[in-house]
Amino acid sequence: MPFQIREATYEDYSAINNLIIEVHNLHCNYRPDVYAKVDTPLTKEHYHAMLMQDQLKIFVVEDSSSHEVIGYSSLKLMSSPSLSILVPTYAAYVNDFCIKSTYKRQGAGKLLFDTIANYAKGHGAESIQLTVWEFNKDALEFYTALGMRTRNRRLELDL
Asked: Quick one: which H or E segment has residue 142?
């Protein structure tokens, strides 16, 4: 199934929000202690503000036949904190990455990831970084297959 990638527009809000709902529901099911069930995890106002940010880019994946938005990713280009103990770096941080569940394992995710990697590299980023929950085995497998590796772990202890 052929796919095409393009930058997100204001008109993509509903499609992206529906994808976010799918991911949000997964997070709510596995981590109800962290994620609250809400009807609209992404408000229209917040989405529009995201589109206006200079260092933030949102890409969508469309099914070439139906033009349905079936995936999206947002990434932000960021410099490391200016601290004497850190080596200065410039990285792309992936805030969101989602492919509609009915389109997974058809190549859309790899195409989207390759697109954001090329974008990041073209804008001087030295790496791509993201956060993934331990429960999300499919995402961990996907990112590992793309060559990503664990950078650090954030642990918790319930009290």
From this structure: helix 137-145
61: β partners: 5, 71
Measured between alpha carbons, how far is 55 from 75 in angstroms, rounded to an integer? 8
User: Whole-structure pTM over 0.85, yes or no?
Assistant: yes
CA-wise closest residue to 12 among 77, 70, 90? 70
Give the Cα separation of 10 and 79 in Å (integer): 27
The pLDDT of 121-136, averaged and rounded, is 95
- Domains in the chain, CATH or no CATH each: 3-145 (3.40.630.30)
Q: Is 36 helix (H, G, I), strand (E, B) or coil?
A: coil
Opening angle at CA 30, ends 26 and 36, nearest 5: 75
Provide φ and ψ at 109, rounded to 5°: -65, -45
